[in-house]
Write a structure and sequence with these properties.
Structural class: mainly alpha
Number of strands: 0
Number of helices: 6
Largest sheet: none
Length: 90
Amino acid sequence: MSVTAGRKAEVITAFANKPGDTGSPEVQVAILSERINNLTEHFKTHVKDNHSRPWLCSRMVRPAPHAARLPAVTPTRPATILIEKLGIRR
């Protein structure tokens, strides 16, 4: 269900602006999206798992607002590229 350390490192290197960058909005949105995708796949096979469902429902609305406020934080990095790359719906 959670993101493994290896997969998290791959996501960080794919979306980092510079080596060692883990706190940029791109990386945070990518990690959150990865966690949501993993949990969504988990619920497809474990339909009766109601314990983790509130976490998923509360996080489903978060990646898009984080990505939408990205131009306000750094106007040189367009949010549309990140949204298209991750497949986030607005």
